[in-house]
Amino acid sequence: MNEADGKLGETMFRFFNEIGIIAQLSGNAFEKVMIGGMTLPQFSVLNHLVRLGGNRTPLQIARAMQVTKGTMTNTLGHLERAGHIAVRPDERDGRSKRVDITDSGRVARDQAIAAMAPELGWLAARIRMDDVEASLPLLEQVRKLLDERRN
Amino acid sequence: MNEADGKLGETMFRFFNEIGIIAQLSGNAFEKVMIGGMTLPQFSVLNHLVRLGGNRTPLQIARAMQVTKGTMTNTLGHLERAGHIAVRPDERDGRSKRVDITDSGRVARDQAIAAMAPELGWLAARIRMDDVEASLPLLEQVRKLLDERRN
DNA sequence: TGCATATGGTTTGATATCGAACTATGTAGT
DNA sequence: ACTACATAGTTCGATATCAAACCATATGCA
Fold first, then answer.
1. DSSP states along A17-72
2. Which residues does chain B have within 8 Å of residue A7's beta carbon, measured at their own beta carbons?
3. pTM attached to this predicted model
4. Footprint of strand D on the protein (CB under 7 A)
5. Residue A2 has pLDDT above 70, yes or no
6. Residue nearest to nucleotide D27 (CA to C1')
7. Option in B126, B128, B146 nearest A145 (CB)
8. pLDDT band at A86 (very low <50, low <70, confident <90, very high)
9. pLDDT for A93-123, tens place per residue?
């Protein structure tokens, strides 16, 4: 290993290390301000259904969230038991299901957004938004590369 | 909520969303190339002990990794059972313990670094290192703010 | 000297997550 | 039509993680 490799590894390692810790802390912060046991993955699914519309299959949602289908079975189970989504069999394909958000789910999603707004505001007041914007293309690129590498 | 708030929330949300997915995918990628059940948190502890030296208390390590002490109890238990660390009571303080890495732990840490080098190389060949370097200050800042906000 | 409080660590019960094995259904090719 | 393969979803057994309750030891203050 030459010097350049060492420095490269060092930089990459710090990058992933910071990202890992931020993901962890932000997830905790999210769940701390939530009520009624709403978790980040659950919110992500509800938000996804609101933004892109319902009538989605579990596998489509799993792909969008980049989690395994087993994980999605778990998350959807929680949401369904909470009454936040409605799951029905797919008419065309006997193996598949279709997921829609319910009114209760919409309310829960709006409450979640309201609950985290102050936290985001606190943070936004302390960092330069331009820097955040500027970091997005790299983050997106890395995310896509990792996704590509995985498959 | 005015328009600026909406855009701000959107940007922040994307930022944390990308970070969450990257953390997840990179953690999975790490564990996929590891052998013998080495996990990312376990490696992080070993690496920490090598870089900053042993004779650390569990709580010190937990703080450095930004996890709870209960989590660290768990991780150290795995490492100790694997023979990668040695834990002894603190002489001065009867409540505390002291942790050191073992030869086995050093070997495991070196193997882990070797195993992930190709992955890091693959990625490094596809992104601009300057961008990564440039993103580090923001990531560090956000991490510190979240940590501050938590306490 | 004692009692109240603080600190280090463990335990408990919940969550998410993965990979791999499994079931059921659909599709394609012979 | 049959057989082989592919796909959708579930289940299982492991991991990490948190918060909260708990225990033991230490410290500070009266």
1. HHHHHHHHHHHHHHHHH-STT--HHHHHHHHHHHHH-S-B-HHHHHHHHT--HHHH
2. none
3. 0.84
4. A 24, 28, 32, 57-60, 69-70, 72-74, 76, 90, 93, 95-97; B 37, 39, 41-42, 65-71, 74-75, 78, 93-95
5. no
6. B93
7. B126
8. very high
9. 999 999 999 999 999 999 998 888 888 888 8
Which pLDDT score is estimated for A17?
87
Query: For the packed helices B40-52 and B3-33, what is the interaxial angle rounded to 10 degrees?
Result: 90
A42 with A84: CB under 8 angstroms? yes
Return the CA Rg of chain A. Answer: 19
Measured CA to CA in angstroms, residue B46 lies from A37, B43, B50, B95, B110 at distances of 34, 5, 6, 23, 10
Which is nearest to B16 in space by CA: A82, A28, A99? A28
> Which residue type occupies B18?
E
